[in-house]
Design a protein that fits this description.
Strand order of the largest sheet: 6-7-5-4-3-10
Radius of gyration: 31 Å
Strand content: under 5%
Number of strands: 10
Helix content: 55-70%
Distance between the termini: 67 Å
Number of helices: 35
Length: 781
């Protein structure tokens, strides 16, 4: 019998022995997967885990099948192995969907696409690589090792890209897709992702054709056919075309592309700042001052001598940052590259303290990476460097967390999985409180050693367990203010991404709803937020979004019903005086915003008594300084008959922007002595960057005696910031040092001290900076 006759023999139905072992391994993996949160229900994470696994399975099964059926046609053996792998995959997908249904399945019509887009092309490409490698003259062992090398090379390529370039995402033909930081909840199938998966199929086509050509050449006598050659050329052409198109679709990025998009660079003594080219020179100068000031002060806090310079990238919007770096709402630092990536804000940037410490501590970290071996130490050091958040210090927050029974055991969550399993608020503040305690009791050298090694015994002479026990005892000595206790009862009970229901789908709906509302498409946002609410299992955070969308859509009766339901579910305990020692539960922020909505709707229908009572609830019990100030201003308006109609239109009726300005000026004309009206006008002018006018009205508001300390503090803070942004640093320093209101919280006092220091630093800064244009165009897509 000739070789050609042998190759025509039918494929035996018997599977190679390796198939049984892969079946067992897949069964074990599936059981583990469905037992875990997030990855064990339909969605992106489950599909990505299957992509990595079945890409591995497909290649090795193709090699094993080809070896087992060496005398059968390539197409037959390859098809058999691909069908076997697909069968395993379908069984695994079915198990995940069954687990999802048991847990309260998300939107199957959305989730199924992740499995079709991610694992399916990976199986085809993995099988193609196995077929190609099997066609080469290598032993079976070396063929399997070669495929291990292929998988490792794909992984290494993406890791090198993330390591060397300013990106947190990866599109990989064989191994799928990594979207960026876990704190960006929205993950969606995009044109870029579709092109990446098409690239996988194009590569597979070329590999199958090449394997077929090699197999034909090895026949005796060799056979020839135009079809494999044409298929090879088509596959190679498609691969090249998709590889060229990829960067244009933002499948990869580099710093040159980012600089071209942003368009401008300004350099200071220690920081190179990359900013949008349309940033006015005065604003760019204030941003650079903010960076240099923070570099200087955090360097001192860490006890460093002459640290290396850093780069800071400021993006126009979270969407632009997501497109270019993979991180949208998440501000992030690349320790090893000594750079930070943030959405531009008016200085001082809210996360700059945190991010610059990540970069400055790079010499303490793992060689070549720059962060600590223990994730909690990396983030805890940055949080500790903030010193305070809002009105309270970092130790205050940790003590409050313990008081409501939500302080995690740091010894148990010292690994990455433990850190991310909890909500970011809990993990970050707990580790921040612990690192603050360590820093106060030990040298900077000891802190640097534990940052590098993660070995607490070597750095401090005690184990992590012993140190955590001592720290937890010390928290009992910190008196938790009542207001902080109420905030803690809400904030530390929020679920993490891994604890929420349908987290990725809900996150995407939430983002789409916010975009629709911003674009004025209120009816669409109502539908999207309603879907997010249903899939989340009734999470009050999404009910709050739905309530706001209903107001914007003028569906006021429905909005009022939603507000009443939110408050009944979340606010009854907060908006009362609880019994001593009784734990309070609920979503205080959602309850506060529900009460504000109820008050505004009552005011709009002229039920002034009900509106005043509801606003008074928010003033007395609500969460958030801004919400409380809104209630205080509304109460003032309700009690001032001469301007009540004007302030009603300004505060709660959706008039055009010009009409709102007109109402505010009309109220001032009617009551020139009204401190609250001056306050409102000053704040609005500050937002419009009309600083000279803003300072005039805010000064007058403070002189006329505002009716509540909350308004006084905000008018004072805004006055100082207006002087600062106007470049009048000496005047700003006087406001923050000599004109402080009485009874500032510890956090507000520390913030005022920092503002004085910032003003003195800014006054000594060069009066002009050089801004170099890079070229290219930016967009806020």
């Amino acid at each position: 019998m000739t070789n050609r006759a042998t190759h025509s023999a039918p494929l035996s139905g018997r599977a190679p022995r390796a198939f049984r072992w892969w079946c067992v391994a897949t069964g074990i993996l599936t059981a583990v997967q469905i037992a875990l949160p997030l990855v064990g229900v339909p969605g992106y994470e489950a599909a990505e885990i299957q992509t990595i696994w079945f890409a591995t399975v497909a290649g090795h099964l193709a090699i094993a099948w080809r070896r087992h059926h060496a005398h059968t046609p390539l197409l037959a053996s390859t098809s058999a192995s691909a069908l076997a792998t697909a069968g395993l995959w379908i069984a695994c997908v079915a198990a995940v969907f069954a687990a999802g249904i048991a847990r309260g399945a998300c939107d199957a019509s959305r989730d199924v696409w992740w499995f079709l887009v991610l694992p399916a092309p990976a199986i085809v490409l993995g099988t193609a690589w196995g077929a190609f490698l099997s066609s080469l003259p290598m032993s079976p062992r070396r063929t399997h090792l070669a495929y291990v090398g292929i998988v490792a090379a794909h992984l290494a390529w993406e890791l090198v890209g993330i390591r060397t370039e300013a990106m947190t995402f990866a599109y990989n033909a064989l191994l799928g897709y990594f979207p960026g930081p876990v704190y960006d909840r929205a993950v969606r199938i995009t044109v870029t992702l579709a092109a990446s998966r098409a690239l996988a199929l194009a590569e597979a086509t070329a590999l199958f054709a090449l394997a077929a050509l090699i197999a034909r050449r090895r026949e005796s006598p060799p056979t020839h056919s135009v079809a494999p050659i044409a298929t090879l050329f088509a596959g190679v052409a498609a691969t090249i075309a998709l590889a060229v198109i990829g960067p244009r679709l933002d499948a990869s990025t580099d710093r040159a592309k980012i600089d071209a998009t942003l368009g401008a660079i300004a350099r200071g003594p220690n920081v190179t700042m990359h900013v949008p080219e349309d940033t006015p020179p005065d604003e760019a100068r204030l941003l650079l001052i903010d960076l240099e000031h923070r570099f200087s002060r955090q360097t001192k806090w860490l006890g460093l001598d002459h640290p290396e310079p850093v780069d800071a990238y400021y993006y126009r919007s979270a969407r632009e940052k997501k497109r270019l770096t993979g991180a949208g709402d998440t501000q992030w630092a690349s320790c090893w590259n000594r750079e930070m990536h943030m959405t531009v804000e008016r200085p001082p940037h809210t996360v700059l303290k945190h991010e610059v410490v990540h970069v400055l501590a790079e010499p303490w970290g793992l060689p070549g990476l720059g962060f600590s071996r223990v994730l909690g130490i990396t983030e805890g050091l940055a949080v500790a460097s903030e010193v305070w958040r809002e009105d309270w210090t970092i130790p205050d927050w940790a003590a409050a967390m313990k008081s409501v029974g939500r302080l995690p055991d740091l010894a148990d969550i010292s690994g990455p999985t433990g850190f991310w399993r909890l909500s970011g608020t809990r993990s970050y503040l707990a580790w921040g409180g612990f690192l603050t305690w360590l820093r106060e009791r030990h040298s900077t050298d000891a802190l640097a050693r534990v940052y590098r090694t993660g070995d607490f015994s070597e750095a401090f002479g005690k184990s992590l367990r012993e140190l955590v026990d001592e720290w937890e005892v010390s928290l009992d000595a910190i008196a938790v203010p009542p207001d902080l206790g109420r905030v803690a009862a809400y904030r530390f009970f929020r679920p993490s991404l891994f604890e929420g229901r349908c987290a990725r789908t809900v996150g995407t709906l939430e983002e789409d709803g916010a975009r629709a509302l911003e674009a004025g498409r209120a009816q669409k946002s109502v539908r999207l937020f309603g879907d997010a609410l249903d899939l989340s299992g009734g999470d009050s955070r999404h009910r709050r979004d739905l309530m706001a969308a209903l107001v914007a859509a003028r569906r006021l009766d429905e909005a009022e019903r939603e507000a009443a339901e939110i408050f009944a579910a979340e606010g009854s305990e907060f908006f009362a005086t609880p019994e001593p020692g009784k734990p309070v539960r609920g979503n205080l922020l959602a309850a506060t915003q529900a009460r504000l909505t109820q008050a505004a709707l009552a005011w709009r229908r002229s039920d002034l008594d009900a509106a005043r009572r509801l606003y008074d609830d928010v003033r007395s019990f609500g969460m958030g300084d801004g919400n409380r100030r809104e209630a205080i201003v509304a109460i003032y308006a309700l009690d001032t008959a001469s301007i009540e109609p004007l302030l009603r239109r300004y505060l709660v009726e959706p008039d055009a922007e010009g009409a709102r300005w007109h109402d505010l000026h009309a109220a001032l004309d009617a009551r020139p002595d009204a401190a609250v009206v001056r306050y409102l006008l000053g704040r609005r002018l500050f937002g419009a960057r009309r600083f000279d006018d803003a300072t005039s009205h805010l000064d007058a508001a403070l002189a006329l005696d505002l009716p509540d300390d909350a308004l006084t503090r905000e008018a004072w803070r805004t006055l100082g910031r207006a002087y600062y942004e106007a470049g009048r640093f000496a005047d700003a320093a006087v406001v923050f040092s000599e004109r402080r209101p009485a009874n500032l919280s510890e956090g507000a006092r520390l913030d005022a001290d920092e503002w004085v220091d910032r003003c003195l630093f800014a006054a000594a800064f060069p009066p002009t900076i050089q801004i170099d244009l890079v070229g290219g165009t930016g967009d806020d897509d």
